[in-house]
Every structure is written in C-alpha cells, then in structure tokens.
C-alpha cells in the first residue's frame, strides 16, 4: 500500500488570483506534485470560483498535473470542457448522483473524454459505503475533511475512519484528502492511508513555501512508515 510516493497538491483556492502564473511557478518551485483546482458552481456549494477558460490558462503555465475538483451539480455535462482545458485528474462528488448507475455514467463521460485519472469525492457526512460499488470504476477516492465550499476550515478527524475502511477493504487506488490539512493534521491523513494530500491556506499562508511543502512530505512519509511498522 505504501509503495506509491505521497502527492502534495497545493490548492490554488488560497493563491493570489491576480497573479496566477506567478503563484503556479511559486508552488511548483516549492515542490508541488500536483496543482489542486477547486471548481465551484454556486449551486452544489454556496460559492463560485472558476471554470474551463481559467483551468486552460493554468494548464498553459503549469508543469505538473492539474487535479480538478468539481464541486458542481452536473459534472458529466462539463467533462469535455475540463478534459480539453487540461485536467489530468478529474473528480466529481457522489452527492451529485442519485444511483450507482448515475455515478457510473459520470465516470463513463469522463473516460470518454480521455481523462487520465477519474476520482469520486465524498462529503464529511457521507457514508463511505456510498462509494463501495464504484471502486472498480474509479482511480481515486477523495475523502473530504471539511464541507466543500471554502478554504481555511477546521479538519474533521472523524473522516479518517473512511480512509482506514478503504485500505482495510484492500482498496489499492489513490486516496486524496482535502480540507484543513496542516502540519498537525496531514500526518494523520498519511498514517490512515491517504496518499494525495491537498492543502490551501497552510501552504499559501506560509512564509517559506518550499520548507512547508518539504516538511509536509517528510512528516507525511514518516507517519506512514511508522504506521506500517506497527501493523
Ligand atoms: C474546499 C476545497 C479545498 C480548499 C482547501 O471546498 O475543496 O480544496 O481549498 O483549503 P484548506 O487547505 O485551506 O482547508
Ligand atoms: Zn478541493
């Protein structure tokens, strides 16, 4: 389970949007593995952010993969737009579908557009069993550790059980965690079995970005190794 390197994915939601190009360069130089891009529609979540044209411009100046987190009500309708804009990872919320068949249709729409890595996200109050039947269809499960919509919220530790549940069940795909990750909470995520770690305010709010990203990687890897030793 631990062979895959940890992925540190700064969330651009906390960057200076007036200087996207500069901010992308700044986090890439600091060691970002992926760039996490939060797309909100003012409907699925009570906030609005950005759409395909902006993702396309981020892609044009980015060297690392774009991890696009769709917090929008009709994800399948926008599969082509985000795939063409350059999303390497495209994740939709299970709460936007009302059946497993509906969720599979979204996955199918993403795959039909050539998305490399397809993810499904689950809100903090969602039962992990909701994604159980979808595990064979997706590459990544995003376990939300805050309610989606805003950066800078407090980490909800009870969601760590979902990460453990997935690993105990033998899920070998990627597990991403998003919301409230910082120097204290990120190692808990890695120890539980998460390997894609998103942080917005904790990275962009730091004085030394490289030290922060490097520190997150180191403490995450250490927590993961300690956990595998006690098992
Ligand atoms: C929340 C977003 C997150 C957000 C995380 O809806 O999905 O990606 O940017 O921000 P922090 O790390 O500040 O909690
Ligand atoms: Zn996000």
Please name the defining characteristics of this protein.
231 residues, alpha/beta, TIM Barrel, 8-stranded parallel β-sheet, 9 helices, 8 strands, globular, binds D-xylitol-5-phosphate, binds zinc ion
Task: Provide structural commentary.
The protein has 231 residues and is α/β, with parallel strands linked by helices. The protein has one domain: Alpha-Beta Barrel (TIM Barrel). Helices cover 37% and strands 19% of the residues. It contains 9 helices and 8 strands. Strands 1-8-7-6-5-4-3-2 form an 8-stranded parallel beta sheet. Helix 2 runs parallel beside helix 3. The relative contact order is 0.16. D-xylitol-5-phosphate (DX5) binds next to strand 2, strand 8 and helix 8.
Q: Helical region count?
A: 9
The helix content, as a percent range, equals 25-40%
Please give the CATH architecture: Alpha-Beta Barrel
**Largest sheet, if any?**
8 strands, parallel
N-to-C order of helices and strands: EHEHEHEHEHEHEHEHH
Ligand species: D-xylitol-5-phosphate, zinc ion
Q: Judging from the principal axes of the Cα atoms, what is the shape?
A: globular
Q: How many E strands? A: 8
CA(first)-CA(last) distance: 12 Å
Low-confidence stretches: none
The tally of domains stands at: 1
In the CATH hierarchy, what is the class?
Alpha Beta
Strand order of the largest sheet: 1-8-7-6-5-4-3-2
Radius of gyration: 16 Å
Helix vs. strand class: alpha/beta
Strand content: 15-25%
| CATH topological fold name | TIM Barrel
Rounded average pLDDT:
97
Q: What's the CATH superfamily, by name?
A: Aldolase class I
């Amino acid at each position: 389970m631990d062979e895959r390197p940890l992925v540190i994915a700064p969330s651009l939601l906390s960057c200076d949007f007036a200087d996207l190009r500069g901010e992308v360069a700044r986090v890439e130089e600091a060691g970002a593995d992926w760039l996490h891009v939060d797309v909100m529609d003012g409907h699925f979540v009570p906030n609005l952010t950005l759409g395909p044209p902006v993702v396309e411009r981020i892609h044009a100046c980015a060297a690392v993969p774009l991890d696009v987190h769709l917090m929008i009500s009709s994800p399948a309708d926008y599969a082509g737009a985000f795939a063409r804009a350059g999303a390497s990872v495209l994740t939709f919320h299970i709460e936007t579908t009302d059946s497993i068949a509906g969720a599979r249709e979204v996955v199918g729409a993403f795959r039909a557009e050539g998305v490399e890595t397809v993810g499904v996200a689950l809100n903090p109050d969602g039962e992990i069993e909701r994604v159980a039947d979808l595990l064979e269809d997706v590459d990544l499960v995003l376990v939300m550790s805050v309610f989606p919509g805003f950066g800078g919220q407090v980490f909800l530790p009870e969601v760590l059980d979902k990460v453990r549940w997935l690993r105990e069940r033998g899920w070998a795909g990627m597990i991403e965690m998003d919301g409230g990750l910082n120097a204290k909470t990120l190692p808990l995520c890695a120890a539980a079995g998460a390997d894609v770690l998103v942080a917005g305010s904790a990275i962009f709010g730091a004085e030394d970005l490289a030290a922060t990203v490097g520190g997150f990687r180191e403490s995450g890897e250490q927590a993961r190794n300690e956990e595998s030793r006690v098992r």
